[in-house]
Amino acid sequence: MLVGSAARPVAIIGGTRIPFARAHGAYAAEGNQSMLTAALRGLVERNRLQGARLGEVAAGAVLKHTRDFNLARECVLDSGLDPQTPAFDLQRACGTSLEAAIAIANKIALGQIDAGIAAGVDTVSDAPVVYPREYQQLLLRAFRGRSAWARIKPFFGLRPRHFKPQVPDAGERRTGLSMGESCELMAKRWGIARAAQDQLAAESHRRAAAAWQDGFFEDLVTPFAGLTRDDNVRGDSTVEKLAGLRTAFDRSPTGTLTAGNSTPLTDGAAAVLLASEDWARARGLPVLARLTFGKSWAVDFAGGHEGLLMAPVYAVSAMLKDAGLALQDFDYYEIHEAFAAQVLCTLAAWESAEFCRERLGRDSPLGALDRGKLNVKGSSIAVGHPFAATGARVLATTAKLLSQDATARRGLISVCTAGGMGVTAIVERV
Asked: Second label for 221, Cα 20 to 30 Å away, from 135, 184, 330, 398?
């Protein structure tokens, strides 16, 4: 519901994340709550928000223990914000924190709140391990027993299979395929060569390493658990080195995706502060950029009508129509590198006249973008990808890029997600 007479611009004040770490490494003893709390604290301290009551905090994680049912609120209580700051959890797979930012932005634009935080966190190292449902039901029958015998009797049904743990995986229930296997199908459909994937991956590492060397990430990252920088970045990565890796999802001669041109399993957390411009001015905080448009989409991957990770192709097309813009009207493009092949399939689809006509309903293709403006500080292949945290990382990066470039006007963000969905956004210079 609109509060006031008009929608308000939404300012991006800044973002903070902890260094991203390869799974089962530096953060092996950490959990979602400790990592998200650290990211929130870093944001609070950097923006002098200790004791401040914000209108809302929206955050989420993809892999969650049952104890994390109220994760966002629990982290707020330890963040340094006024305990009266409300919070809620949400989840849209890898698009979680970008979706959270859009949700917070809508509340700010409508006048419901003046400021809020969007965040995300994920840990593969502390993934919930559960046991078969048959075992769970046995335990619940015992719990419901009204007599000693009724509580003991179910345990006579115990079998060795009940003690085989089930660890979460990235497989899609509808197809039985992992995300990597699904992306292999996309790569084959679009004719994306292994060499092109390795080239994009090597460039991601090179650019991320250069960004760290130049100090770009210094005010975007707060140290945590002994780490001061992302530990997956390999500045010496080359196409030749990547070419030596074996394929990971299709071991046949036609396979193209490897561990080197795919996102590594990663632990980490990130947060972004959004506000009305009046609120920012009153607190003496800089406005880096504005979040102006957002769009989510889904495709029918289960029916075989579209590739699992192609939804952002559609979302961007629809969002550009909302904004009255062309694909070339941007100075920076941040396309989440779930896999190098996914990025290249996206670009190929936008350049295809047939695809844009038949699938996007356009008279002409969206066209090519300047690769020199794509993921200029590296992206998920190099930096890492804690599922729910990536959107906030990308949003903060884009806002900073625009704030430092007096000639730039806009940035385009695209994040693919599990379940055949995608979340996209437009960020504009103030």
From this structure: 330
